[in-house]
Amino acid sequence: MADFSLPQDSYFLGFDSSTQSLKATILDSNLNIVASELVHFDSGLPHYKTKDGVYRDPSESGRIVSPTLMWVEALDLILEKLSKSKLDFGKIAAVSGSGQQHGSVYWKNGSSQILSSLDPKKSLLDQLESAFSINESPIWMDSSTTVQCREIEKACGGAMELAQVTGSRAYERFTGPQIKKVFDTQPEVYKNTERISIVSSFMASIFIGDYAAIDHSDGSGMNLMDIKERAWSKLALEATAPGLESKLGKLAPAYAVAGNIAPYFVERYHFNKNCLVVQWSGDNPNSVAGLTLNVPGDLAISLGTSDTVFMITKDPNPGLEGHVFANPVDAEGYMTMLVYKNGSLTREDVRNHCAEKSWDVFNKFLQQTPPLNGGRLGFYYKDHEILPPLPVGYHRYVIENFSGDSLDGLKEQEEEFDPPSEVRALIEGQFLSMRAHAERFGMPSPPKRIIATGGASANESILSSIASIFGCDVYTVQRPDSASLGAALRAAHGWLCNKKGGFLPISDMYMDKLEKTSLSCKLSANAGDQELVSKYATFMKKRIEIENSLVQKLGRC
Ligand code: XUL
């Protein structure tokens, strides 16, 4: 039998170009972390004057962008920082990465020339300064393209039809509607653009010194790809903008090699010239890889700037809610995902307002309040929410005399709850919403287990609320960033697939040694008692009724 083990004494480098930072994780050939690094955009590159890595445009409602060049500058900076780790870059066999999903980069006509001749004596910033036809990339937090969404859905025969082809109905942050907005509002700029990358393929392009393909998984987040064919959908392309296919270039599987590393990195940072650049993908697909989510019925919850819920499936069933993407480590499988825009920034907002800006106080409040919060239900949207589609606003309700079954006497409440109840209403609200929507999207109830990741997964009080609400054990992973770890793992997977000359199941790579690697996970909260779980089910039903009426009153249909 051929040997498909990783070469001893080699490293695999993964990045995560996310909203607030650029992170890197290096794995050795036993899949253990040997180095990691981070550049925080607001503090590490303060001259861009971003807040949380973004600009929220005060003059255009919902417009949220990031300076493309900040991502470019961060790349040199993180490589300089990593070189100080004394790790021999010459031993890095493959590089891959994650990008925040959906964000788009517009390369000006003629820029492929600049990209293919990067001079190692100059910085990336100096050389790419004039490479873009748009300097501020629209990102996933943007919600300014509702008009384009409705037009695309209409041209494709309706929201459901678009979802069935591309895996999602049209969403404001998805790349297709964003590109359509550029075409509709700045046709000259669109004309002056030779290539449109998404954040993942953009970073991969710099690494190979050429335009990289868009991988199938991140490509599923564009409203442009036929997820079953894993090819551009002609119908969606035509509904979006003319001449788009040539600006997007090719699609490729996530496990494919995008190219060899460019001479810029060989000469400036001493990478080996044979180092492979494996296709970059989205942060969420890479988290699915990094969390080793291999069993249907497992649920992963990532608690970051956005909160996301993932499941894997062989049998996609896209609908009007949630998303279906190609699974980045299964050539034929899919992953399903729910995304909440109001994640950690909203938890921080409530913490700052009600809990003296302290997580200790926040946790104390969570522990001292009873489950079901005396019937108090809260909806907290600091940013325009994706699921459900609701504008900024905080809404509070009380079910009087709530004992876990009777739902009579619902009252809307204008004023805030007392601070401890406010904290519980936020946390219960976020996870009841996740449970309700995940059940609608096919999650078994209870799920087999939950793997929690992201910043807030370090918070034990939050984890035990999750265990009580979902009624299953919650595991955590001892790693800071599953997206960059997942990218490093995929770098190794891509390296092996390349050696084999085709797809290899990723589980063959780690076989039974998972527990001995940095990919292991530990039990952090035990399933809540089943009586409480069913009371939460009743509470959740009420929450969904209120949510539906809020959407009817304030949201889009
Ligand atoms: C996914 C999404 C966010 C970003 C965050 O659809 O919009 O999770 O990927 O980086």
TrEMBL record:
Record keyword Transferase present: yes
Gene3D superfamilies xrefs: 3.30.420.40
Reactions it catalyzes: D-xylulose + ATP = D-xylulose 5-phosphate + ADP + H(+)
GO process annotations (BP): D-xylose metabolic process; xylulose metabolic process
Highest taxon of source: Eukaryota
Carbohydrate kinase FGGY C-terminal domain ranges (all copies): 299-495
Keywords: ATP-binding, Carbohydrate metabolism, Kinase, Nucleotide-binding, Transferase, Xylose metabolism
Gene Ontology terms: cellular component: cytosol
EC main group: transferase
Residues annotated as domain Carbohydrate kinase FGGY N-terminal: 11-287
A GO molecular-function descriptor: D-xylulokinase activity
E.C. number(s) listed in UniProt: 2.7.1.17
Family from the record: Belongs to the FGGY kinase family.
Record's function text: Mediates 1-deoxy-D-xylulose (DX) phosphorylation in the cytoplasm prior to the translocation of 1-deoxy-D-xylulose 5-phosphate into plastids. Can also phosphorylate D-xylulose (Xyl). Uses preferentially ATP as cosubstrate.
Protein name stated in the entry: Xylulose kinase
Organism encoding this protein: Lupinus angustifolius
